Amino acid sequence: MAVSKRNQNKRSNILVITEALLIAYMGYISHFILTQVGLSASVSVEKLIINVGMLTVSILLCSLSVGLYEAKLRETFRGIIRRIFVSVGLSYFLVEVLTRALFNELVMDSYFLPASVCLIIITLVVFRYFTNRLGLLGLGKVRILVIGAGERASIIEKRMRRDVDRIGFELVGFVPIPGDNRENGIRKEKIIHLMVDGNFQKFISDNDIEEIVIACDQRRGTLPVEALFECRLRGIEVTELLDFMERETGQIVVNLMYPSWVIYSNGFQSQNYLRDALDYTFNCVLALIIFLLVWPIMLFTAFIIYCDDGRRTGVSVFYKQERVGLNGKLFKIIKFRSMKPDAEKNGAKWASKNDDRVTRIGHIMRKYRIDELPQLLNVFKGEMAFIGPRPERPQFVEQLVREVPYYNQRHNVKPGLAGWAQLNYPYGASVEDSMEKLKFDLYYVKHQSLLLDILILIRTVEVVLFGKGR
């Protein structure tokens, strides 16, 4: 454990030094750019060094105070961004007050601090993204031991097989305990046969375990409560399997959920009242901006659909269909028609990736999401948002509510043009696919925030531009 502590301190020191150099360099670059564009006058080297030094030290101290240099920081990337904003914003205030109140002769041009702060925030966010995402400096990568080797534990083996799925952690092994369903359990991962007694603490210490994941099939009478309690007192994280999967995969494992987990979780209702209050305004403004950019594409698409088969069949270029919206309320979704007029002559069917009901022009529209553009009208009407679970048809919802647990919870938010599930899972063509998509939809409902919305929008733009439509 002492070796692990030294390694953690070494990584933290490297992180502090690297970020100090980045902050100082961005301060210098800001002044250089401002002087080149004529917004600031040149100052002496000594004055610039002192200002950059004060800003660097202040940001490092504030970052330290908000826990950005903790060796065992287990925070989502959005949480890290929030901490960066807080530390840099507080530093801006401190440096501004300090220089103007005590060292007025050191005050730089009024553009220097705002420009420096903006560049520093962008630089630190990008740097932290790559250090955490790629496991650089060993940051965000912890050694994990899983208690359980049965059916519940096997979900880690099934869902996180690739190295890219385990960037954030190093899996030491699985410890089987009585009550595990070994027949449907771990197959290829390392099994550690360990008695959960005094030797358990020694194993944890000798192997530098930093987090224990509880994934046993039976808990009553089998869970080593005293050993886990001792581990928790020693500062080792103890995490439930559902929380671990939610954190590492961006989805909620619906088929493993149980009532007590839901009760003690954050629930599936937004607690961000400011975001909820501004939701309609934000979506309308964004819809208006998008419409002003894409109306020529919409006009051209309508003309092409009419020429393709609309003129011959007399069917509208638009397609209206009843969908289930917020709190189960029904509304009519509006899309460009991408299927043949008789597509549902035999009743409602699931959409599939290579659906033979899709027209020639429809394949192109679906690939680049052009058929979704008329839904801007649904956004203006307040029936949809830009980001949210895709709205489903009432006929399918009725079936899915009966067969998929917690399915109705996805209706706690407005349906959206783009969603977390659409980025992570292809077309849903069955109840099983709907179950998989629901795992991502519930993750969005539970974690909805402006930062997550922005992330989804950015990735959706990538999907549209490169034709990766799902």
Strand content: 5-15%
The parts where pLDDT drops under 50 for at least 5 residues are: none
Overall structural domain count: 3
Task: Tell me roughly what share of residues is in helical segments.
Answer: 40-55%
Number of helices: 17
First-last Cα distance = 47 Å
**Lateral strand order in the biggest sheet:** 2-1-3-4
The main pleated sheet reads as: 4 strands, parallel
Sketch the topology as an H/E string, one letter per element.
HHHHEHEHEHEHHHHEEHHEHEHHH
State the assembly state of the protein chains.
single chain
SSE inventory with pairings:
Layout: H1 2-36, H2 45-65, H3 77-102, H4 112-133, E1 142-147, H5 154-159, E2 169-175, H6 198-206, E3 211-214, H7 225-233, E4 237-240, H8 241-249, H9 259-264, H10 273-277, H11 279-313, E5 318-324, E6 330-336, H12 360-367, H13 376-380, E7 385-387, H14 394-403, E8 416-418, H15 420-424, H16 431-447, H17 450-465
Parallel strand pairs: 1-2, 1-3, 3-4, 7-8
Antiparallel strand pairs: 5-6
Membrane topology: Multi-pass membrane protein
Pfam families: Bac_transf
Keywords: Membrane, Transferase, Transmembrane, Transmembrane helix
